Structures are given as C-alpha cells and as structure tokens.
Amino acid sequence: MQYELAPMEGITGYIYRNAYRKYFGGMDRYYTPFIASTGLNHKELNDVLPAHNAAFLLGQDAGRNAVDGPPRLIPQILANRAEDFLAIADRLRQMGYSHVNLNLGCPSGTVASRGRGAGFLGYTWRLDAFLAEIYANCPLTISLKTRLGVSDMEDWEEILEIYEKYPVEELIIHPRIQRDFYKHPIRWEGVELALERWERTGSSIPICYNGEIHSLAEYRALRQKYPQIQRVMLGRGVLKNPFLAAQLRQWESGRQAQEEIPAAKQHREILWAFHQELLEGYREIMSGEQNALFRMKELWSYFGESFPGKERALKKIRKAGNMAQFEAAVREVFG
Questions:
Q1: What's the pLDDT tens digit per position in 52-108?
Q2: What is the reported pLDDT for 256?
Q3: Domain annotation covers residue 260
Q4: Nearest to 30 by CA among 38, 40, 21, 39
Q5: 202, 230, 252 - which closes a domain
Q6: What's the mean pLDDT in 242-259?
C-alpha cells in the first residue's frame, strides 16, 4: 500500500512537510500546495527551493516509520493554459524535480470560476487539448488529481476516457464534484465507475483514493469495499492525527494498531517536539508573531483532536490574542 500526503494550501508547506517527515514519516509521497504563477511568486518559490527540501530531493529519509527508499516530493501545478503549465514545469525541472501533478480538483469558487482546478472539468474539449499538449511537450512525469465533475457527474465517464488517452503516472480521485466542496458525502459511485471502467478497458493508470480517511476504522472500511485500491492520499486526517499513516501501516502489516489517537507519554513527547519545531519554523519565516500565531491556530483547529478531554485548554488556544497566551494554553494542553 502506498501513502501520500495531500497538498493543503496554507498548511502543508515546507515547514510542515519537513517536520512531519522528521517526527512521523511513513509517507511515500508528499505534494506541495499548488503553484499558479508562471514566474513562481516568493511564497511558491520558497516552498519548492531545493535548499528547503533537501531531505526529499537528496533521497535522505530518517523519519519514523519510514518506508523503504526515499519519499518523493511532487510539486502541484494549477493551470488551464498549456504554455503556463509548461513554463512552471520547466522551472521545476531546473531545480531537480522529475515529477509534477496537475490540480483538477480544487473546488474554490475563485479558482473554478476561472476554469482552473475542478472548474476545468466543465470544459472537456479544452481539457483534452490541454492534456495532449502538456503530455507531448513536458519532459517531466505528470500525475493528475481530479474531482468527478463540476455541477454533476454527467461528464465523469467522458473525463475518464480523456485521461486514458495519456500516459498519466497516477490518477488521484477525490470523489466529489466541484460544487460539493468538502461537505457533501463521498460519491462512491464515482469511484466504482472508474474501477469498473479500468477493469473493462484494461487501463494501467494507477488509481489513488483521496477523501475522508480520518481513522483506522474508515481506512479498513475502504480496504474492505475496494481491495483493488493500493494507493491512498491522506489529508485532514493526518492534520488531526499525525500518527495516522503509522497506524495504517501497522494494520496492513498484520500488527495490532490502536483504534484511538495515541495518548501515551512517548507519543505526547513526539507531538510536543513536532509542535515546537513548527512554531519555531513559522516564527522564523513569517513577519511578525501574529502571522505565526494565526498559522498555528489554524493547525490547532485540526491538531486539537489529538487531545481528547482538553476542551477547556483548546478553547483558550482558539481565543488567544497573542503568542504568550497561545503558548500558555498549549502548555496546558500538553500538561
């Protein structure tokens, strides 16, 4: 089974990826939040600079529960013009990257309204021409992350037919349409249609499942329902429980995995070290402590689920108006 860390805008930048790899590991692939500027703006450039991602680009992996071989870092590109995609990919090639991912899944209204991300799925003829050009001219391996459509699933089979025409390295499916955002229940029929089509046509494109795996129980249900799926992308579940990938690997290896979020003393120590490395990293790169505070509070909106029974202290974190109040509340959570 292959595990991949989802790209999450504003959260899984290089500070988070490096700290996660150091303290938890267990991921085969990590994805950067999407790059949309052909010139790579300051934030985008910093996130993919080789100096900030040496452990991935140099093949070093000393992370806990690490898989055999180095984890791969794959930059994600958001574009709907082939020349823009190719320009960004060429910059990344010059930095040493060999694989990029095309974002066809972002549901944001501002993105989709411009025909990018999941919004591109509403223009299948343009999507086909776009893919033809980038696969013909890009020297890098290209994988795709997709939703099932824009306002319904009517075009999903046609979209799959388009994907099958190209040497897609991996197809990551988030089984919702653009208008579902993240609230609508998973549309399992979209997964089933893809798997049935692949079996019927003999497609060799690997399918990676992404969506609502927040616990071992949810993962086990997926594996029971679709045993042919051998790749999963984890997102918010890992933000809530950084030990999740390790738990899933334990279960796959036949060892007993804990159903609940680990709460033993040694696990708290790892979480504390991870948290402090994130905090110091954000303080170092962000202008002003308030910006670092906002970023940490955003992480705690997920991370707090690792601390059941600490609701009062978690509320103090949410209400903290400065770094001193925040750090005092964090110590209370870990206390």
A1: 999 888 643 333 333 445 569 999 999 999 999 999 999 999 999 999 999 999 999
A2: 58
A3: no
A4: 21
A5: 252
A6: 82
Both tokens of residue 140?
Answer: 């890098």
Determine the Cα–Cα distance for residues 100 and 32; give it in Å rounded to an integer: 10
pLDDT at residue 262, rounded to an integer: 52
Tokens of 222: 């997926």
Please state the φ and ψ torsions of residue 113, each to the nearest 5 degrees.
-65, -20
**How many C-beta atoms lie closer than 10 Å to residue 275's C-beta?**
21
Contacts of residue 103, defined as CB under 8 A and 6 or more positions apart, other chains included, come to 7, 34, 76, 77, 78, 116, 117, 145
Q: What pLDDT score was predicted for residue 93?
A: 96
Q: Which CATH number characterizes residue 184's domain?
A: 3.20.20.70
pTM of the model: 0.93
Burial of residue 225, with CB atoms counted within 10 A of its CB: 0-12 exposed, 13-18 middle, 19 or more buried: exposed
Indicate the SS3 state at residue 49: coil
Contacts of 257 (CB under 8 A, 6+ apart): 216, 247, 248, 250, 251
Residue 32 near residue 73 (C-beta atoms within 8 A): yes
Which H or E element spans position 134?
Answer: helix 124-137
Q: How many alpha carbons fall within 13 Å on the CB side of residue 4? A: 27
DSSP H stretches of helix in 148-264: 156-164, 188-201, 216-225, 236-240, 244-252
User: Per-residue pLDDT averaged across 295-301, rounded?
Assistant: 98
Please identify which residue in the block is written with the tokens 């979020």: 261
- Measured CA to CA, the distance from residue 195 to residue 192 in angstroms comes to 5
Place of tokens 């964090």: 330
Domains in the chain, number: 2
Domain encompassing residue 196: 2-252
